[in-house]
Amino acid sequence: MAKREAILSVIYDAWGGMHPGAWRHPDAPKDPAMDFQHIKYLAQTAERGKLHAFFLADSLAYALEKDPQVLSLTSNVARFEPFTLCTALAMATQHIGLALTASTTYSEPFNIARMFASLDHLSGGRAGWNIVTSTGEAGANFNGFQPGRDDRYKRASEFYDVVAGLWDGLEDDAFLYDKAGGRFFDPEKIKSLNHKGEFYQVEGPLNISRPPQGHPVICQAGSSPAGLAFATRVAEILFTYGLDLEASKALYKEIKSMAAANGRDPDHIKVLPSLGIVLGHTQEEADAKLAQIDALADPQIGIERLKGLIDYDLAPHDLDGPVPEIPQTQSWSKTMQDYYLGMAREQNLTVRQLSLMAMRFDAVAMSAQAAADHIENYVVNEAADGFNISFADASGSLEILVDEVVPELQRRGVFRQDYQGTSFREDLGIPRPSARPQ
Ligand SMILES: Cc1cc2nc3c(=O)[nH]c(=O)nc-3n(C[C@H](O)[C@H](O)[C@H](O)COP(=O)(O)O)c2cc1C
């Protein structure tokens, strides 16, 4: 029997590496966020490696580190608006999926349906929508609007239905271009939606033709009960957090059975855990690179980041003293609080060490061989369908992934030799939805 093949996506992160020390590495680009030639190079490199997707994260607020003095030590301030950037990248690539993040809390469904339909046409069927509901502080930029989590997902669910309904109001052969007969389109094949719901009222139809993929590939990363319920109803790619093998296997099984319970083919929801890495040709080289960027990051950045993650300010504490007992609170992310405080307790970390963990965002140093082993192990053991890879550094890990990890996975028969079909959907082996009768 053929081995299961991995799906690989890379996160383009405008900060130039997730680690706040990454931008200061001598080999890092001067401007990772606004230098389009550099971003184009990254997307083309990912495509050279036959990776499935170039994934753009996004945020609608300034940054995790709010203190301007601390923020000024990091590169995570500027970023392109993702639709604009993806349109430019669509012109610079031919095969790779372009998955971008757009928020249901701070957008209108008509605009989103139209922008994704446009991007899908312009890219020849390579658009993907990472549906987020936006946690964090974005509300301050949107009239102070910040619904609670369950409400955000209720809105997201209706938002998605409106967007899908708008796409489905356009039949594939609605446009006739019949010069001889004098009919440009068939009005019977372009339907209004007339949606009147709890949150949205949208008449439609959409003023564009049906997206080449029917629907752009739907991606989601909900991890709360409300988030997972939504994701297993609509997502075709589900991004999860990196867990150990056994926990990943259990989550993988749960996601597939939740999708089946929603009447879906479990094979049409691809589970991609996060994999945060720094790659080296050897383990020693990877370790040295991580140590080098660790040393280039001021511990204040981690302390500031932890304020949000653990809901506690460690600044008054001695950097080389132990992490104090910190009360559990109703922070925005209980998962993050539990994770960091649990790690501090179990490993007896000092404040400086915990700050480093927050700055690394879970990234680990790996040789190309170790990364190939990790990917193969998870995919073959049904703990994942592939990975969504983020790099802590901006100085060579993507190239090692493409030039060493991918060929190694191909040799082992766990990664394909070339793109399949022409659209992102075909490449993933996920069927194209047909327009639903309305
Ligand atoms: C790989 C990955 C990428 C994500 N990218 C974004 C992003 O770009 N923007 C954003 O607002 N949230 C992003 N998120 C957060 C998720 O959308 C989601 O809110 C989070 O996983 C918590 O789940 P919950 O909303 O169900 O609590 C990402 C999560 C993961 C795992």
UniProtKB/TrEMBL annotation:
Keyword terms of this UniProt record: Flavoprotein, FMN, Monooxygenase, Oxidoreductase
InterPro entries, A to Z: Diverse_substr_monoxygenases, Luciferase-like_dom, Luciferase-like_sf, NTA_MOA
Domain Luciferase-like: start-end pairs: 24-294
Protein name from the UniProt record: FMN-dependent oxidoreductase, nitrilotriacetate monooxygenase family
Record carries keyword Flavoprotein: yes
Entry similarity comment: Belongs to the NtaA/SnaA/DszA monooxygenase family.
PANTHER family: ALKANESULFONATE MONOOXYGENASE-RELATED (PTHR30011), C2H2 FINGER DOMAIN TRANSCRIPTION FACTOR (EUROFUNG)-RELATED (PTHR30011:SF16)
Gene3D superfamilies attached to this UniProt entry: Luciferase-like domain
GO molecular function: monooxygenase activity
Organism expressing this protein natively: Pseudomonas cedrina
